[in-house]
Design goal:
The complex is a heterodimer of chains A (85) and B (315). Chain A has 85 residues and is α+β, with helices and mostly antiparallel strands. Chain A has three helices and four strands; from the N terminus they run ββαββαα. Chain A has one domain: Gyrase A, domain 2 (2-Layer Sandwich), CATH 3.30.1360. By secondary structure, chain B is an alpha+beta fold. Chain B has six helices and 23 strands. Classes of the chains: A alpha+beta (85), B alpha+beta (315). Chain B: Pfam families: CT_A_B.
């Protein structure tokens, strides 16, 4: 499940095994989160959270839906990892 | 030369405006100001970059001695100050002389204040300040600082400040938006919206606890991220995460308060009321953008007032 965690964070929640796999890929830099709008990436046993600045996304990408923009970036990335679990 | 903390009060801490994940000063946590609007306003008034670190004082503010002339401003709760018998008010520019001692009375509204010093400040050791500690003045002065110093050379204060009416809209409401989670049933949000909660205590910079009717909901077994503004259930009552909340928690997460309401949450005191109002993310982002524009318009108004004062001084 991916959801907007307030106005500045997108959180993906899944089984611990899936998150562990994502974390391993992230640590090995196989999961490249090099989008300029995504800042801190924080893991827990069941979640991975992506921090972003919505105003920056709104102004630079000319969108009123910055969360959808960030989700459109991170979701395919997470899918590619979680499918290979 | 420096500022001397004669009395640290309840909690005096040098703090950045936003969370700093990397810092040159090790062993200090810079998780950001609990009320992030106030330090920006204080910085703007003294000519600093708005994100310059300030002194965050909670509950009973400290007593500070100045060892050289400087320009200060403080913002946040309605704490009346005093220097050598003269009254000092929030949201104004003041000139401090060598030997001046700044103290504060209890606030009638709000629980924290943020003190900005022209040119910036730094600490050599812990950013949690104790009585007797010194805070170094960075003296990172710009041309604007020089002009403000010149403008203030013969007076204690300027005749204007940011009026309370300019800030009423963003500080006085007890209503807090909460962005919903897709896996929390609507009944939980209906219960949350129809009830009023009372702040029982704030664990310093960690969380706000409230009392009121319980919410009967147990989410799935999950380790949640500790997010600033996150609303979690502890013994079926909401707790709200502040800046120093744990990075992860097993408490049930039911939603998150958007950033544009966090500054007023940071000024809540024991006995304050809180009402939640659910909001979808698109509306929350519209509010975020509106708040961003409002803050910028306030900054522009301060710039205008300072430049007008400088022109007046030169004439």
């Amino acid at each position: 499940m991916i959801f907007t965690n307030g106005d500045k964070v997108i959180t993906y929640q899944d089984d611990a095994s899936v998150i562990k796999n994502i974390k391993a890929q992230y640590d090995q830099e196989a999961l490249k989160v090099n989008n300029p709008y995504i800042g801190e990436v924080a893991f827990t046993k069941n979640t991975v959270s992506f921090y972003y600045d919505p105003v920056e996304v709104m102004e630079n990408e000319n969108t009123i839906e910055p969360a959808n923009y960030i989700i459109s970036i991170v979701e395919p990335m997470l899918d590619s990892v979680s499918e290979g679990k | 030369m420096s500022l001397i903390i004669q009395d640290a009060g309840l909690l005096t801490i040098m703090q950045t405006v936003k969370k700093q994940t990397s810092t040159e000063q090790q062993n200090n946590e810079y998780n950001g100001a609990v009320d992030s609007l106030s330090p920006m306003l204080a910085n703007k008034l003294v000519g600093n970059d708005v994100e310059e670190p300030t002194l965050e004082m909670s509950g009973q503010p400290g007593v500070i001695q100045f060892t050289e002339p400087t320009i200060i401003a403080y913002s946040g709760g309605d704490f009346k100050g005093q220097v050598n018998g003269e009254k000092i008010e929030p949201n104004r520019i003041y000139h401090m002389d060598r030997g001046d001692v700044l103290s504060f009375r209890e606030s009638t509204r709000g629980s924290r204040l943020y003190l900005a010093v022209a040119g910036g400040i730094a600490v050599e050791k812990s950013n949690v300040l104790k009585s007797g500690d010194e805070v170094t003045m960075r003296r990172n002065y710009t041309a604007l600082h020089d002009e403000i110093f010149h403008m203030m050379s013969n007076k204690r204060k300027v005749s204007w400040g940011i009026g309370i009416y300019s800030l009423v809209e963003v500080y006085l409401s007890d209503i807090y938006h909460i962005v919903k989670r897709p896996d929390v049933p609507d009944e939980v949000y209906e219960q949350l919206e129809e009830r009023e909660y009372t702040v029982t205590q704030e664990d310093n910079r960690i969380q706000l606890s409230v009392d009121g009717q319980m919410i009967e909901f147990a989410g799935e077994d999950c380790v949640n991220p500790g997010i600033l503004g996150g609303v979690y259930l502890n013994d079926q009552l909401p707790v709200i995460a502040l800046n120093d909340f744990d990075a992860e928690t097993s408490l049930t997460h039911i939603g998150t308060i958007p950033s544009y309401h966090m500054h007023k949450l940071g000024q809540k005191r024991r006995g304050s009321k809180i009402k939640f109002q659910t909001i979808d993310i698109d509306d929350a982002h519209a509010e975020t953008y509106g708040y961003y524009l409002w803050v910028n318009s306030l900054f522009k108004a301060i710039d205008y007032k300072i430049s007008k004062e400088l022109v007046k001084e030169k004439m």
